[in-house]
Structures are given as C-alpha cells and as structure tokens.
Amino acid sequence: MTYKDGKLKYKLSPSEKADIQEIYDEYESVKGLGNAKLKGPAFTKETLAAMEASYGEVQQVGRLSKLRQSRLLNAGTCPCCGILPADELDHHLPKVDFKLLSIYPRNLVALCHKCNNKKRTVDGIDENKRFIHVYYDNVPVDVQFLFAQILIKGGGLVVRYEVKKIAELSELLYKQITFQTERVNFHGRIDPEVNIYLSSFAASLQLAYEGFGKAGVEITLKRSAEHAQKIFGLNHWRTVLLFGLAAYGDFCDGGFYEPLKLVRL
Fold first, then answer.
1. C-alpha to C-alpha distance for 102 and 112, rounded to whole angstroms
2. Which ranges of the chain does DSSP label H, i.e. alpha helix?
3. What is residue 137's predicted lDDT score, i.e. its pLDDT?
C-alpha cells in the first residue's frame, strides 16, 4: 500500500497477501455469509487497521474510484427498498468488523442512503438476520412473493404490502427478506411514495373510464403493470401495486376518483 507519490503507506508481507486471498476465497465459498474467519483473527491490529483505512481509496478522488463507479453506474433503484436511487456504496459485511473485506469488490453493494444507514451494523453472522446479497442470493424473479392488500377507506387508498411464504421461496430467503423489509422500515416509508406514484396515472385512468368504463381502467392498469415488471421486476412495489389495483373491481369501477382527487365530468 502506497501514497499517490509512491511513498510506502503500509507494507503487506507475502504471507499476509496470501492469507488475505484466502479470506477472499472464503467469502466466495460462503457467499458473503459472515463468520469468525472472515474477521481475520490471526492478523495484526496494524494490518487490520491498514486494510480498513484502504477504503478511503475507493472514494470519488481515490485511486480505486473506478471500483466505486463500476458498482454505482448501473445500480438503478436501491435493491433493499426499491424507493430511492442506489447512490451509496455499502459493505455487505461491515468494514468495522470485517476490515480485510474493506475493498473487496464482492463485498461492496450499492444502496440508497436511508437503507445504508439502517443496515450499517448488520454483521450477517445470523443467517436469519442478514440482508439479501445481490451478487449471490437466488431470489425468485418469475414468481410473485410480494403482494399488496388494497382498500379504499375514508376517501383515500390504504395499501399494505406483505411478503408471503410461497413454495418457490425457501424458508431462509423468506426470513431474510422479511428481516430486510422490517429493518429498512419499508412499510413506514412506502405510503407517500404510493400516493405520489399513483397521481401520475390520474389523467389516464380518468380517460380510460370515461371512454371504456371499468374494463378500460383494468386494461390500462394491467398494461402499466406489465411495463413496470419489465423495468423493475415482478416483485417491485410498483409492479405489485398496479397488478393489485387492476384486480380491485371497486377501484377500477370509478372508485379511483376520490383517492386521486378527480372530479367526475
């Protein structure tokens, strides 16, 4: 490890380099699941501190900034909440505990700021209480496990999302997704997003209803849901919401007017 001018910052011995590679291999073997070995108990405090400090080179002006850019470039929305842009790098296993993994590319995941803060101290050792690893975990993409319970109540729309234990979702993945959803406060954050998102459909739903009635609204919502599925995936909250509304007869039969603040002509 050197400074930009070539001056030595910290020297790793050949054996330490080999041992660090073993840590990386172990990470691949366990697919990012935290364990004691990954913490590098045999390494000196100085080496561990130097490895943790090396993450500074991943920042925007650091020599490893291209690593940062590659992780953020095509990240899209946050894989934890699906609400905000994934604009921060997170250590899947926190570098405060797993210092040797501070600059390991497979341990760097793009998240939004809010989810990054909520996740920060999750060490991944308890496999039931860990976040989904976007590089390793095989979360079903062609079967629905996130569902929305929707109700028109008091002139507004009440939407409650639920992760269901379907046959294609293992018990472990179900627990991890449920834990992750609760940890990032998805349910507490989604309500205003639903209202903002649906407001963009107000005019098209009104036109569909005035022209073709309930069937027109159902078709509009279903096609919008299919488009959202192509962009975000089947189990994204937008896709789930639109499919749920398309199947909600009262909403499609003019029930959307009041929640969307529309006036009947």
1. 19
2. 14-30, 45-53, 65-72, 113-119, 171-183, 186-199, 202-232, 237-246, 249-250
3. 93
CA–CA separation, 192 and 34 (whole Å):
35
- pLDDT tens digits along 158-209: 999 999 999 999 999 999 999 999 999 999 999 999 999 999 999 999 999 9
Q: Quickly tell me which residue has 């998240």 as its tokens.
A: 111
Q: How many residues does the chain have?
A: 265
Alpha carbon distance 221, 238 (integer Å): 11
- CA 21, 24, 28, 29 dihedral sign is positive
Residues 6+ apart with CB under 8 A from 184: 80, 81, 114, 115, 118, 119
pLDDT band at residue 2 under the 50/70/90 scheme: low
Integer distance in angstroms from the first to the last C-alpha of the chain? 71
Whole-angstrom CA distances from 43 to 4, 168, 248 are: 26, 42, 59
Pair of tokens at residue 19: 């041992």
Tell me the pTM: 0.90
Q: Element (H or E) spanning 108, and its range?
A: strand 108-111
Q: Which amino acid is at 31?
A: K
Q: Tell me: the pLDDT tens digits for 27-62?
A: 999 999 999 999 999 999 999 999 999 999 998 778
